[in-house]
Amino acid sequence: MGMELEKRAIAGDERAMVELLTRHEDTLYRTAYAYLKNEHDAVEAIQELTYRALKKMHTVKEPTYIATWLVRIIINICLDMKKKQAKFVYNHNVEIASTDYQPFEMADIIASLPIEQQELVYLKYFQDMKNGDIAQLKQIPEGTVKSRLHTTLKRLRVLIQKEDL
């Protein structure tokens, strides 16, 4: 029971890989959409993720972290795509002001954080990972995870208040 599918996927079983990608597709698509803001780009990011994941899944050492690994890849793909769309300038002022944040507006705010902090937010609040698991994954002490989360949340609060002005 447990990690059978993940273990088979890491071992190179292509059907297991595809099933795993299908299982996580919703989260991955939502993450891509939150970063890229449109269906076309999000679908493109998922296709790129599928290609990269099938090629590199054998490099995952810990089956438990395969979902996190996939999220990290999709975030990297999205960031690459955003860099390529450099003409796409963030302009928060154009967005419709709203007091209760829509998920995508929140994603916008999160996307303005440094990549390390974005990853923490996604692992902790989108993947529901415990601090200890994040510490293991990132290979840093749990206390460091706590203090980085604290700093990140403080920074997010400041950014949200700016949005409210």
Explain what this protein looks like in three dimensions.
With 165 residues, the protein is mostly helical. The protein has two domains: 1-87, Orthogonal Bundle (Rna Polymerase Sigma Factor, Chain: A); 90-165, Arc Repressor Mutant, subunit A. Helices cover 72% and strands 0% of the residues. It has eight helices and no strands. Helix 1 (4-10) packs across helix 2, helix 2 (14-36) runs antiparallel to helix 3 and helix 2 packs across helix 5. The longest helix is centred in the first third of the chain and has 23 residues, at 14-36. The model is unreliable at 87-101 (pLDDT under 50).
Short description:
This protein is mainly alpha-helical. Helices cover 72% and strands 0% of the residues. Helix 2 crosses helix 4.
Q: What are the main properties of this structure?
A:
Arc Repressor Mutant, subunit A; Rna Polymerase Sigma Factor, Chain: A; 72% helix; globular
